[in-house]
Amino acid sequence: MSDAIMGHSRRMTPTTLTHASGLWSRVLTGPDTWGTLRVGYARHWAQYRVAVYPPGIDDGQRVRLRAWRAAPVWGFLLWLAVWTAFAAIGVGYAVSIPASIVITALVIARSAAAASTTRRFVRQMTVWTGEGEEPTSSIERDRLLRMVDLLRRTDADLRAGRISPVEHETVWAGCYAELAG
């Protein structure tokens, strides 16, 4: 039986708080320090999109970039929550819908402003592969996936202490520069 059913409560200790904040930090900053890989599908095609953040950004900048990229999802959820809150206190549709749209737009604009200085320097590359593709598409996709693999292995090596932060950032900067050319 669970502790709650038995009448016991769990005490929050510094260890559980640290673990919880570490997990929350990982969710906010993302699994990769260097950027993102997104793979999408459309009929007989696959899209590979890599975004490499500028080397040396801190966790706060990474969180702001991830928040901006996820704005369509959390923006809708925020609008729904604000609209529901207005409806719960009895505000009519004529006011609650426009007001929730304005509030959501202001929060999204604030998120965009917070990420704007770093967002300008993010480098991206998108490759489509699929039916009837050009031969260079597969070559570009493989190059992109090799870069992602290198960056992920470098992240793992840094976390395991096999390389220094300087070595990690050197590899990251090389991949960042490769996307510029």
UniProtKB/TrEMBL annotation:
Annotated InterPro entries: DUF6611
Keywords assigned by UniProt, alphabetized: Membrane, Transmembrane, Transmembrane helix
Pfam families per the UniProt record, alphabetical: DUF6611
Domain of life: Bacteria
Residues spanning the membrane: 71-91, 97-115
Name of the protein: Uncharacterized protein
Organism of provenance: Gordonia insulae
